[in-house]
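> Could you send the YgjP-like metallopeptidase domain-containing protein prediction when you get a chance?

Sure thing. Input:
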Amino acid sequence: MTHPVLGEIECVRSSRARRVSIRVRASGDVRLVYPCGVSEMRALAFLEEKIPWVEAARERLSHRRAALPPQLPPAEEKVRVEMLRRAAKADLPVRIGRIAAETGLRYAKLSIRASRTKWGSCSGRNHISLSLFLMTLPEHLRDYVIVHELCHTVHHDHSPRFHALVDRLVGGREKALSRELRAYAIR
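Output:
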C-alpha cells in the first residue's frame, strides 16, 4: 500500500506475530507486521503514531549508508570475501577454542559463514555460527562477539542472566563493547 507520508509500505498479517511491529530496512523500505487478531486499520493507526520514529530510523540508516565505503565490483568483492574466509578459518577456530577454555564455556560445533545480517549465532544445540566478516573488526570486538555467542550455550536468550554473564566475562564492559560494535556494519 502507499502511505501519504512514508510512501510504499509492506503490510503483512502474520499468524506468528504477537504484536504490531514496524521494521525499517537498510534500503528505507518499511514493513508493518500485525497479528491475525488485529485489524489492518488498527495496525495502520499504530503506524501513524510511529511516523516520527520511522523517519528517524530512515535518517539514521541513510547516515550509516553514507559512511560506508563504496561497494566493490562483483569480481573484486568475491576475491575480498574469499580472503576474509581464509583469514576467518585460520583465526576464528583458534580464537573460540582459546576463549572457551578461558571461560569454561563449551560449544558443540563451529561453522563460519558469509552472513551479512548477524556477526554470530548459537543454536539450541550449541552450534555456533560466526560471520567471516568478523575479520573486519578489531580483535577485541571479535572476542566480544565470541563471548556473546558462547554465553548463549548457557542462556539461549537475551535475559538479564545472559547479559550478567556476558558482562562478567568481559570485565564489566558489555554495554560499552555492544555500543562500539553497533558502529560497525557488516560489509
